[in-house]
Amino acid sequence: MLRQIETELGPLAENRPIQALELADALWDEGWLETRLLAAFLLGRIPPQEERLLARLTAWTQAVRDPSVRAALLTTSLTRLRKETPDLFLVLVKEWLYPTRKRMWSNGIQALVPLISANDFDNLPPIFEIIRPILRASPAALQFDIQELFTVLYKKSPDETLYFIQQILENTKSELPAISLRRMLSDLPPDLQTHLREILRNVTYHQ
Fold it and tell me: ∠ CA(33), CA(35), CA(39), 5° rounding?
């Protein structure tokens, strides 16, 4: 039933974005799982040029508690923004990963995973720049998010990812990144584990 409703609502979101956003607001305010999933779906079909879209995404991802709704907001709701306007998408994620917005860090990292995993995406330097402050802090609460991030980055470009991680370790005064890496090491892909163990053995900290 939910899939059928999405099929019927999709053209509305694409052709009448203002009305679709108003409908998404109403569905979200209902507060039920199904209505919020529909609201998340609608956001993903609204043209990214709609000026109120980014504000909704930020507000809703901050407020949501249900993991399935959160996942929908960080994947489905960002579909057109991620594919059609990747620069605008990265602006949004950079806001979420701002140093003083620690509550949004997990959302920012999770939002990056589908972008990095896309077959046609290979522009990693902006990603590295955005996530650098978060990885230097390496809060324990983000261990699983960072683990997933490293996995998709390494799959996309092993050499760039290893060099980036080495630079983080060597140019961060705190040992928290190294501690975090050691904790997640056994859950990373085997070949990545091998390379990281070598980096961790040889890393020199600049105090």
Answer: 115
Distances in Å between the alpha carbon of 157 and those of 98, 110, 182?
A: 25, 18, 21
Domain boundaries, the chain: 1-84, 85-207
CA angle, 3 then 60 then 118, to 5°: 60
CA 168, 161, 153, 85 torsion-angle sign? positive
Q: pLDDT digit string (tens) for 15-27? A: 888 898 999 999 9
The letter for the amino acid at 166 is Q
- Cα end-to-end distance, the chain, whole Å: 59
Cβ within 8 Å of residue 66, ≥6 positions away = 33, 36
Residues 184, 188, 194, 198: what is their CA dihedral angle, to the nearest 10 degrees?
-40
Model-level pTM greater than 0.85?
yes
Is the distance from CB of 131 to CB of 109 less than 8 angstroms? yes
In eight-state DSSP terms, residue 33 is: H
